[in-house]
């Protein structure tokens, strides 16, 4: 007789039975402020600016009108904000123009969202309009192309860093110019401080990139960026998308644009561009390949009822939209602001994807935060909503290490502000250093960073500690 036949019911282990709770805990009613993300700015608020007082909704929602009336350069900007911005603010702006690497270009939509009663502290103003009084000296360790995008470019305008992904820079203009742009080495016109690399719209240049992509079977994922694909004529959107999707090795393409955040009315009024990107999306579906848009909202103040109308159109057409945000001092460097941004993005069907540690870009030291600040914000934001709607906080490692989880450093010296990252699957054996902004360090350490010998000592010490800790694991 088998062992199983000797088992009787009374010998079977008893099932554990969970006792019902003596008292079921009910969550208390939420404070109405928890639902504030559902209240999107609406109405004709832009009429509060004298320059746009006579602009009706139909005109304001015309992307061509937005482009033609954007503040491009000092004279146009001052003309648009006179009468609404304080005189001392305008003087501060004029003094700041010549000290930054990016030209100024701001849409009427964004200008109308700035709090002109206090433009010095406004999170939208901080991103696009430089003030001489707020600029800080650059950290001595930064470089113009801190991510080494050009060094990792086998052909002009195509960065191949990750094994299966490449960044295709198709142009060098945008609907707006962000002060903090990591590609200030190329985007926009030359400024008093930077002579730009040229990446103009050029099908012949693109052809070299296509040839390289096709020749590398490991490439599966292409990010089409620039510049900004919002500025790419519809015929080129369609041609580039179709050309990439029909390559056997390509499985995914992403169109990168800040345009959805700064000029959402293009989706509502540029039918040819919208139809072109939709056709690319449908071709991808037919070929079982992913097509999506990656956009760039940085503050909840940028999300309005117009944003939702534009996102609703893309959602109805089946387009996935993800958001890549940059952590910036005075813009979104608090858990409360980032929580609101996360919730508002979810409200308009935009998936929070990345929160970047601010790249080490010239002329914007006032916007950078510490790695520690980023870590603290992530801890507080995680859990406020579903995981798939919660962004991953990353450092794009200076020197071309690629994106690393912000908390995944090998070593972090909060006194000197040096954090050390490795990227085993990207550039094995190398160490990549990020540097906290000088203003967050002691006066003694700030002075040390001005001495080349001490710079080297602090960097060498950080790398030695990182090696020791890796070796101990």
Enter the CATH topology name of the largest domain: TIM Barrel
Q: CATH homologous superfamily of the largest domain, by name?
A: Aldolase class I
Q: Helical residue percent?
A: 25-40%
Envelope shape:
globular
- The Rg value, from CA coordinates, equals 25 Å
Annotation, overall tally of beta strands: 14
Total of DSSP H or I helical runs spanning 4+ residues: 16
What is the first-to-last residue Cα distance? 53 Å
| Low-confidence region ranges | none
Strand sequence of the main sheet, in spatial order? 3-4-5-6-7-8-9-10-11
Largest sheet: 9 strands, mixed
Q: In CATH terms, what is the architecture of the largest domain?
A: Alpha-Beta Barrel
CATH class of the largest domain: Alpha Beta
InterPro entries: Aldolase_TIM, Lys_aminomutase/Glu_NH3_mut, rSAM, rSAM_sf
Modified residues (N6-(pyridoxal phosphate)lysine): 403
GO molecular function: 4 iron, 4 sulfur cluster binding; catalytic activity; metal ion binding
Domain Radical SAM core: 160-385
What is shown here, in short?
The protein folds into three domains: 45-134, no CATH class; 158-405, TIM Barrel, CATH 3.20.20; 409-473, no CATH class. Helices cover 32% and strands 13% of the residues.
Description:
The chain has 473 residues and is α/β, with parallel strands linked by helices. The protein folds into three domains: 45-134, no CATH class; 158-405, Aldolase class I (TIM Barrel); 409-473, no CATH class. It contains 16 helices and 14 strands. The strands form three sheets. The chain has a nine-stranded mixed beta sheet with strand order 3-4-5-6-7-8-9-10-11. Strands 12-13-14 form a three-stranded antiparallel beta sheet, with helices on one face. A two-stranded antiparallel sheet has the order 1-2. A hairpin with a 4-residue loop joins strand 12 (411-413) and strand 13 (418-421). Helix 8 packs parallel to helix 11 and helix 13 packs across helix 14 (371-381). The longest helix has 21 residues, at 452-472. It is globular, with a radius of gyration of 25 Å. The model has no long low-confidence stretch (mean pLDDT 91).
């Amino acid at each position: 007789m088998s062992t199983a036949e000797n088992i009787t019911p009374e010998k079977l282990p008893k099932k554990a039975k969970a006792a019902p709770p003596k008292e079921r805990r009910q969550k208390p009613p939420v404070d109405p402020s928890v639902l504030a993300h559902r209240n999107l700015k609406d109405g004709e608020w832009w009429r509060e600016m004298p320059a746009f007082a006579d602009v009706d909704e139909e005109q304001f929602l015309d992307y061509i009108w937005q482009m033609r009336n954007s503040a491009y350069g000092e004279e146009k900007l001052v003309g648009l904000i006179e009468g609404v911005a304080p005189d001392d603010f305008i003087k501060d702006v004029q003094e700041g123009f010549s000290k930054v690497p990016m030209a100024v270009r701001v849409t009427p939509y964004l200008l109308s969202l700035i709090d002109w009663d206090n433009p010095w502290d406004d999170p939208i103003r901080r991103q696009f309009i430089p003030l001489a009084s707020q600029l800080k000296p650059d950290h001595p360790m930064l470089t113009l192309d801190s991510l080494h995008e050009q060094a990792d470019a086998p052909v002009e305008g195509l960065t191949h860093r990750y094994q299966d992904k490449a960044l295709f820079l198709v142009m060098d203009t945008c609907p707006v110019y962000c002060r903090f742009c990591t590609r200030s080495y190329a985007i926009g016109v030359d400024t008093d401080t930077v002579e730009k690399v040229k990446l103009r719209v050029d099908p012949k240049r693109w052809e070299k990139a296509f040839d390289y992509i096709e020749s590398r079977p490991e490439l599966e994922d292409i990010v089409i960026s620039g510049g900004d694909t919002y500025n790419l004529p519809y015929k080129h959107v369609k041609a580039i998308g179709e050309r990439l999707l029909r390559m056997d090795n390509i499985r995914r393409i992403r169109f990168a644009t800040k345009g959805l955040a700064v000029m959402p009315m293009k989706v509502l009024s540029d039918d040819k561009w919208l139809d072109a990107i939709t056709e690319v999306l449908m071709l991808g579906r037919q070929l079982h390949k992913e097509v999506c848009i990656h956009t760039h909202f940085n503050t909840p103040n940028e999300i309005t009822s117009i944003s939702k109308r534009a996102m609703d159109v893309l959602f109805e057409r089946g387009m996935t939209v993800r958001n890549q945000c940059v952590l910036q001092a005075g813009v979104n460097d608090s858990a409360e602001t980032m929580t609101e941004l996360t919730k508002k993005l979810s409200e308009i069907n935009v998936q929070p994807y990345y929160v970047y540690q601010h790249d080490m870009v010239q002329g914007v030291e006032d916007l950078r935060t510490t790695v520690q600040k980023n870590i603290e914000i992530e801890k507080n934001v995680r859990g406020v909503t579903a995981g798939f709607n919660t962004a991953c906080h990353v450092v794009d490692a200076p020197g071309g290490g690629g994106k690393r989880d912000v908390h995944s450093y090998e070593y972090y010296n909060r006194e000197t502000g040096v954090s050390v990252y490795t990227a085993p699957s990207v550039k094995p054996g190398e160490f990549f250093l990020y540097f906290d902004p000088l203003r967050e360090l002691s006066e003694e350490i700030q002075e040390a960073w001005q001495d080349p010998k001490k710079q080297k000592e602090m960097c060498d010490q950080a790398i030695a500690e990182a090696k020791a800790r890796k070796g101990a694991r």
